[in-house]
């Protein structure tokens, strides 16, 4: 039985993760931590306000769904205590990722940073990477619920990185825009100048379109998470397999063999 802790336990994703872990026969929820509402209960255990609860409960792995500022502190702390980290938190910079690589190094604790645990999203990113060399225009539109604090989404930034890497030195069709009547109308320019547009919409959960264009044709790859339950199989898989994946791994792809 893997002993699992959840950081950000009273949040939307933390609450779902506590319930999913508590309901899994081969995992045991042993600690739940959140700075908001310590003393509440999630997945049948009391929520603590202190990271120390993870060490006290002898966690093998901690699932983190917080904000980048909190995860930046928690993940190196977990590395120092020899506890594996599975984080779905988004909003990381390249410098943050370097810090995590040096915190986990080749030590006993491993780290998975997955911007999206839904299998449909993992495949959407893979399909976008496959399409990239064949089109000279690409734009990303990500759609999320109205409580999301970071933009663009972690999924969109990783998708843009992967499209740009797959395209390599091949030139993109130039953007003709000379003037934006509304600043930002063309979205944010990501790697390779790929435009990323963020929508925040009451009623939505997490969705993305990747649109590719070439002479006389276009391809749209669409992914939808209608419910947070879509992320839970990926979270549980990560807890079960993290001991087999040393260092810092980005994305669930290698865990799924995609
Ligand atoms: N990877 C994925 O599949 C996936 C899916 C959904 C959300 N996310 C990401 O997960 C993160 C959380 O999303 P959410 O919708 O659950 O947000 P949320 O606001 O509902 O929950 C975040 C929780 O973190 C807690 N928190 C904040 N700072 C803390 C600190 N210093 N110490 C302890 N707890 C702290 C908050 O109190 C809150 O309960 C976001 O970065 C989001 O982008 C990723
Ligand atoms: O609800 C969120 O916030 C989500 N964030 C992830 C991201 O930033 O890519 C994806 C899943 C939902």
Automatic annotation (TrEMBL):
Pathway: Amino-acid biosynthesis; L-lysine biosynthesis via DAP pathway; (S)-tetrahydrodipicolinate from L-aspartate: step 4/4. It is found in: Cytoplasm. Gene3D superfamilies: Dihydrodipicolinate Reductase, domain 2, NAD(P)-binding Rossmann-like Domain. InterPro entries: DapB_C (IPR022663), DapB_N (IPR000846), DapB_N_CS (IPR022664), DHDPR_bac (IPR023940), NAD(P)-bd_dom_sf (IPR036291). Its EC number is 1.17.1.8. NADP(+) binds at residue 35. GO terms for molecular function: 4-hydroxy-tetrahydrodipicolinate reductase; NAD binding; NADP binding; oxidoreductase activity, acting on CH or CH2 groups, NAD or NADP as acceptor. It catalyses: (S)-2,3,4,5-tetrahydrodipicolinate + NAD(+) + H2O = (2S,4S)-4-hydroxy-2,3,4,5-tetrahydrodipicolinate + NADH + H(+); (S)-2,3,4,5-tetrahydrodipicolinate + NADP(+) + H2O = (2S,4S)-4-hydroxy-2,3,4,5-tetrahydrodipicolinate + NADPH + H(+). NAD(+) binds at residues 8-13, 34, 88-90, 114-117. One of its GO terms (cellular component) is cytosol. The active site is at 144 (proton donor/acceptor), 148 (proton donor). Residues 2-117 form the Dihydrodipicolinate reductase N-terminal domain. Keywords: Amino-acid biosynthesis, Cytoplasm, Diaminopimelate biosynthesis, Lysine biosynthesis, NAD, NADP, Oxidoreductase. GO terms for biological process: diaminopimelate biosynthetic process; lysine biosynthetic process via diaminopimelate. Residues 121-254 form the Dihydrodipicolinate reductase C-terminal domain. (S)-2,3,4,5-tetrahydrodipicolinate binds at residues 145, 154-155. It comes from the Bacteria. Belongs to the DapB family. Homotetramer. PANTHER family: 4-HYDROXY-TETRAHYDRODIPICOLINATE REDUCTASE 1, CHLOROPLASTIC-RELATED, DIHYDRODIPICOLINATE REDUCTASE. Catalyzes the conversion of 4-hydroxy-tetrahydrodipicolinate (HTPA) to tetrahydrodipicolinate. This is 4-hydroxy-tetrahydrodipicolinate reductase. It comes from Ilumatobacter fluminis.
């Amino acid at each position: 039985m893997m002993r699992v802790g959840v950081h950000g336990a009273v949040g939307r994703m933390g609450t779902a993760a506590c319930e999913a872990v508590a309901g899994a026969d081969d995992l045991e929820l042993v600690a739940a931590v959140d700075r908001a509402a310590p003393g509440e209960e999630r997945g049948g255990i009391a929520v603590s306000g202190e990271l120390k609860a993870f060490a006290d409960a002898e966690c093998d792995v901690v699932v983190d769904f917080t904000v980048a500022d909190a995860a930046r502190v928690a993940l190196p702390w977990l590395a120092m205590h020899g506890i594996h980290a599975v984080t779905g938190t988004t909003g990381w910079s390249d410098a943050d990722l370097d810090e995590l690589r040096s915190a986990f190094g080749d030590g006993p604790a491993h780290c998975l940073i997955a911007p999206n645990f839904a299998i449909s999203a993992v495949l959407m990113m893979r399909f976008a990477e496959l399409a990239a060399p064949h089109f000279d225009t690409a734009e990303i539109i990500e759609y999320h619920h109205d409580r999301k604090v970071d933009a663009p989404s972690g999924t969109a930034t990783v998708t843009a990185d992967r499209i740009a890497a797959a395209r390599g030195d091949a030139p993109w069709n130039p953007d003709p825009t000379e003037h934006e009547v509304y600043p930002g109308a063309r979205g944010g320019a990501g790697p390779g100048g790929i435009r990323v547009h963020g929508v925040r919409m009451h009623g939505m959960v997490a969705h993305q379109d990747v649109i590719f264009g070439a002479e006389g044709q276009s391809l749209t790859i669409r992914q939808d998470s209608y419910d947070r339950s879509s992320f839970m199989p990926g979270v549980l898989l990560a807890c079960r397999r993290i001991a087999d994946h040393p260092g810092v791994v980005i994305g669930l792809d290698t865990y799924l063999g995609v």
